Protein: Methylation protein EvaC
Organism: Salinispora arenicola
Amino acid sequence: MYTRCRVCGGKVGEFLDLGRQPTANGFLLPHEVNQEFTFRLAVGACADCALVQLIDEVSQEVRYHAGYRYHASGSASHRQHFEGNARRLLATELGGSDPFIVEIGCNDGVMLATVAAAGVRHLGVEPSTNVADVARSRGVRVLTEYFDAGTAAAIRAEHGPSNVIFGANTICHIAHIESLMRGVDVLLASDGVFIFEEPYLGTIVEGRAFDQIYDEHVFYFSVTSVAAMAERFGLELVDAEQISMHGGEIRYTLARAGARVPAPGVAALLADEQARRLSAPDTLEEFGRHVERVRDELVTLLRQIRADGLRVVGYGAPGKASTVTNYCRIGSDLVPFVCDSTPSKQGHLLPGSHLPVRAPEAFADPYPDYALLFAWNHAEEIMAKEQGFREAGGRWIRFVPEVRVD
């Protein structure tokens, strides 16, 4: 099956179909089950610009709304990361006279709160009113809109050009990326930078992290595809840094073409992706076959544990848990509930699979025999916190990159 690339219009060839899926952060109350939205979750790659993307998309109004339940500051490691980002920008790009920064998708203000406390002009653009209100309570100035060319023009008219446009785990969510990039062109100062951090295709494919694929992640960027996209809109990829967020991301820095000298790391990563054949059809098709094997092995393991009369509880309810539970058809017969520390998720049902989400206290009341680690990107933080589970004889089940029991 072919569709057209959202950036360049080239042919996009499908390589993985994860079946009918709900919106990954569409947590439900029991009476809402019959109203649940689903779509076909399939992914493909552009033959021309190498951009990996969803075949079908969910409208942004369905994904981002007053009931959006992801809070970026929910993890201690996330808070530290974004506070570090803010301090770094304050010491570099925002160190001049009256600088201005715009964050696309500021969520609950975890990054901009530090900028606001420093007295630097800023604006968060966040369409989900509930998390935008949390950001405002932290002293962050927020515009409750979707970022596009029109929004960017209005911001520039009121505030002037932006020295930094920033996004984290947001740019890959925006299906109308052509309008977003035109907006960056309108808003960015002549010497400004557009910095964004996103899940890395290399991590997903080579790390077998198939659960990173869900409705909010419309695009799966590589250095190759970002460089091509930047050039198409008169920009240039001037830096690309690998970071540890969400199991492995890349922080991309774009500037106006010719405005800055690209860092050596850009050419090195481009050459590395070519040598690894990261976007080649055979590489992506093998990834798809591996995902099928993981599904089969995980379900077999969970069924065996149940047959042995033992108990498994899910740990963490991130968006990617929806992909795993629905693709593998994991129901409450195999995993009776999931524990998560986000208050707005507790008392709700995981999308699609309808596993109940409970507070962390339920995990030790009593401890299960096994814990299925959905929030695997926080494994170190979680295991340090849950030493009592291990001491009680509990074992962790992981499925990225392979199914294993620790």
